[in-house]
């Protein structure tokens, strides 16, 4: 097992390890083979590749929608140029802050793509309005930018202000989303600067307005005119029935608050990383050889599942007690199997629960592991007390109360109560007063506690 140093990149560490494996294999006997059972970089590479494709598709869609509405190559190119400049500025900020391109920062860039072009389109549309009124490109740009610059600044600052509170969040959430917030805020602010500087300059030099539009452009203009007329009629209807619309607003507000309580909540959504974990726990005092037998029976059952690619088992102590065992199961790639990891885990729970002498717990590893403690289930509750008697009394009650909840399964605790224990206190001061005959009788004897 290879553990990376804090602050290092998972993909870089995995590449370095893979580079030295051929040399290590050459030094081993022919009968020994090095096989990679678990590589966290594989899922990271897949996720990062999906995000890159998503970002490329987002860029194409944004530019395509702009052209669909404007029907003008020069008018499409001007707001589209705001994208690379804003993203370049975001990369600069990330470099200064020592951030990396990961799932969160890439997600922030994807979300900011739509925000980036908004300000530029507003500036462009106002300039086009002045040019359609007969002004020259330079004059239209100056007049349009004077009218709309303050509005763009207000829009940019208000949009960035939405994400600023994330910068001051504490705990795990703050550590997770701080990089996301910095990336998206810097991109939005830079796009605002680009919209009031670069976009007006490009409009004054390259913007061309086509007054007579035919074909698809004419059809789209006529459709927009009909849509605007319909919006005007609906707006007049709403203004004539203000009390009714106020009641609708209150109803929607109430429904929003109500739905907030109904929608399920969680920390991190379930993920399928092509892996499962199985924990075994037998009765206290179970010998090592019995645990080996239990582990072998579980291994024989698990390998019958066609979605299992490989498994690794260990028992007899190590990171756990002698009466525990652990399985690390590697599933086949998600694209090649019909069932998710959650469904496969549910399939295994039934057969694994029929074995006498021990309990088996199946869980899907969390996408984000917080803390070093790993229990038998996905959710762990730690109970601490300075009074052992109270701890022994209340832990079983808590376990029973949680087990009665219909939403949970595989409830267990790791408290060991049944092994006898003797507290031996040596009275050294009292031993000095023993008569010589008693000391001679105990000399050479050993005290054994079973």
Instruction: Determine the N-to-C terminus distance.
Output: 36 Å
The percentage helix is 55-70%
Encode the helix/strand succession as letters: HHHHHHHHHEHEEHEHHH
Return the structural class.
alpha+beta
What is the quaternary state of this protein? Answer: single chain
In total, the number of strands is 4
Instruction: Give, in spatial order, the strands making up the sheet with the most strands.
Output: 2-3-1-4
* Cα-based radius of gyration, to the nearest Å: 34 Å
* Total DSSP helices: 14
Which second-level CATH architecture of the domain at 41-211 applies? Up-down Bundle
Percent strand equals: 5-15%
CATH homologous superfamily label of the domain at 41-211 = Multidrug efflux transporter AcrB transmembrane domain
Q: What is the class of the domain at 41-211 in the CATH system?
A: Mainly Alpha
Return residue spans where pLDDT drops below 50 for at least 5 consecutive residues: 446-450
Shape: elongated
